[in-house]
Amino acid sequence: MTTINKPKSAGRRKSGRRHPLSSVALIAIGLLFTGGAYAAFSTSTANAETSATSQQTIGEGKKLFAANCATCHGLAAQGTGSGPSLIGVGAASVDFQVGTGRMPLQMDGPQAQKKAVQFTDEQIATLAAYVSSLAPGPGLPDSNLLDAKGNSAKGAELFRINCAMCHNVAGAGGALTQGKFAPSLDGVTSKHIYEAMVTGPQSMPVFNDMNISPESKRDIITYLKYLENNPSPGGYALGSLGPVSEGLFLWIFGLGAIVALTVWITARSN
Amino acid sequence: MAKDDNSGKDLAAADSSGVGHEGAPAGTAVVVRDAVANPGFPPHRPRVTDLDPSAERRAERTVYTLFYLSIVGSVFAIAAYMAFPIVPEDPGSVRMNNLFIGLGLTLALMAIGIGAVHWGKALMFDHEGIDERHPVRGSDETRTRAVEIFQEAGSESGIGRRTLIRNSLIGALIAFPLPAVVLFRGLGPQDDNPAALLSHTMWKKGTRLALDPTGTPIKASDITLGSAFHVIPEGLQDLEHGRLEEKGKAAVLLMRLKPEDLNELPERKGWSYDGIVAYSKICTHVGCPVALYEQQTHHLLCPCHQSQFDVSNHCEVIFGPAKRPLPQLPIAVDSEGYLIAQSDFTEPVGPSFWERN
Fold first, then answer.
1. Residue of B nearest to A211 (CA)
2. Three-state DSSP class for A92?
3. Dihedral of CA B79/B83/B86/B88: which sign?
4. Does B240 share its domain with B108?
5. Which residue among A34, A127, A147, B12 is least crowded, i.e. fewest CB within 10 A of its CB?
6. Minimal Cα–Cα distance from B188 to chain A, Å?
């Protein structure tokens, strides 16, 4: 039952984003419902790791992998000089990296960046099934952990202790070393937030279930969704970047207004 | 002080003829012989409001309208306070409350200000005038009189004669700030040497490493490769008082690297456990929490001043203003598999202080 909830909520979010193009949205909803049933099927199999996943799905995933990923990660996902081994990274890692468009990598750089997703949900699910069939690894999160209905106050405390130093206390993101950065968490889906915590993509450390329990991860997601859905009580947040954006605003607009007023006061009336 | 010699007198005609103000005392200005002649004022140019009575009426209307608007703004602010109350359960209500009260008050004050400036610029008397600057030095009789006053005061009060009174007053004035010194000292640590307090943390032999904020002890097996755990000493969360002070010194970041990635100092060989290392989270520069851990480069970044520490290389400073590596907490595993500290930090954590060796 619970696994069916997730694709539904994902569908709602997608259609919301495409709201101005209502016909496209309708088609998308239709496609997502058909794809959703399939995704639900492959999600439950991915959770069960190796045994229940149909051999056919894994085979399709393997083909996709060979065509799109093997150049860097190796034909058997063993890793090469240009990409790490994917043995044991689990379905969660594939779903995060491919589902946010970070993989396939567009170009070399300090870090892989979010871009338009290159695969359909169905293809991502087969890729995930293939990679998780190689060795056990973190599976896709249970949908009841993604409902953002946990304790947001507790989530906020955990977020401040574990996440805020990189991602900023309001989840606005921040700079790391040598061109790397912690991305903004605004608009990131609950599933991807959860998967990032479990798998530790790129520079991010891993936050396994012994460090932050699944319930606590749900609280953290609740906090982030609370921030996303509630206006800042202080008014316009200027990107929540703190003194940089606020200072810049005041220097330009505050001082600008003072200069303009001074010019007006001292100008001769005609 | 300021004496307005020419108040209300129109000087434009006199000055534009180049007469200058030779009659006025020179003050502190250096008078040079080949001084450039005072060009005087440009010819006075009347404003529209001086020439056109309808423009004058319009300006008048603008000014009083602005003042009435200010009243509207004040009333609006009061109404907004009542119409948009702050509901304790709803942080969004603070936003509306602040926004509308702020708009009302802005209107109230801005309208007064703009109205007053517009009044002054468009309607008030606008002929140019000169106020001469007075010499800084007083006249001789003023100076003599001032000295006399001081002497009179000295002899009348007897401050030179009654030395006991004078000295006790000086003593009283010196003693008066002393309570402040004692009161401020009371804000610091009471019975301990501050240097000793800074040199030791809550960690001691056998203290279990616990998760921040719950205080759950951590097993070595819980820490997967690439993990970063934010750690406090077990028991810290149960402290009745001084919890934040202790946390400020004892906070630790626990990371697991591949053992072959770790380059350990020979004397610290036994301080890690299977690639698990624990370092103080307090920056050695000015004490910010250093916790921006990049699990692939094994670099730790301090968000305050961008000091970087290389975890794989005993947290050596690789960039930024920090001078010392982060202190390492020697760890081991107890019989139940929990991570424990082998001892306290072997050096004081955090930034430098005078007594630090």
1. B229
2. helix
3. positive
4. no
5. A34
6. 27
ipTM of the complex in this document: 0.72
- Is A192 within any annotated ligand binding site? no
Domain span including residue B147 = 140-183
Give the phi and the psi of residue B8 in degrees, each rounded to 5: 75, -5
Residue B356, domain member (yes or no): no
Per the annotation, does A19 bind a ligand?
no
For residue B337, the model assigns a pLDDT of 92
- Amino acid at site B284: T
Helices H, strands E: what count in chain A?
Answer: 12, 2
Answer yes or no: are the C-beta atoms of B323 and B335 closer than 8 Å: no
Q: Do A18 and A95 belong to one domain?
A: yes
Residues in A closer than 8 angstroms to B295, CB to CB, are 200, 203-206
**Count: domains in chain A:** 2
Nearest to A235 among B98, B213, B303 (CB): B98
Residues B109, B210 share a domain: no
Q: Give B223's contacts in chain A (Cβ within 8 Å).
A: 208, 210-211
∠B313-B317-B322 over CA atoms, to 5°?
Answer: 155
| Nearest C-alpha in B relative to A229 | B92
* B109 and B218 belong to one structural domain: no
Structure tokens at B38: 């005072």
Residue A204: give the domain boundaries.
141-230
Residue B89 inside a domain? The answer is yes
Tell me if B92 and A233 make a contact (CB, 8 A cut-off). yes
Residue appearing with tokens 């082998």:
B342
Q: Is B303 in Cβ contact with A165 (below 8 Å)?
A: yes
Distance (Å) of CA A114 to CA A10, A192, B163? 18, 12, 83
Chain A residues whose CB is inside 8 A of the B99 CB are 235
The DSSP line for A165-203 is: HHH-TTS--EE-STT-EEPP-TT--HHHHHHHHHH--TT
Over residues B265-321, the pLDDT tens digits come to 889 989 999 999 999 999 999 999 999 999 989 999 999 999 999 999 999 999 999
Please compute the mean of the pLDDT values over residues A37-45 and round it to a whole number: 51
Put simply, the answer to whether B48 touches A233 (Cβ < 8 Å) is: no
User: Is residue B5 assigned to a domain?
Assistant: no
- How does strand B328-329 pair with strand B292-294? unpaired
Query: In this structure, are residues B280 and B293 in contact, taking their beta carbons and an 8 Å threshold?
Result: no
CATH value at residue A201: 1.10.760.10
Do B69 and B148 lie in a common domain?
no
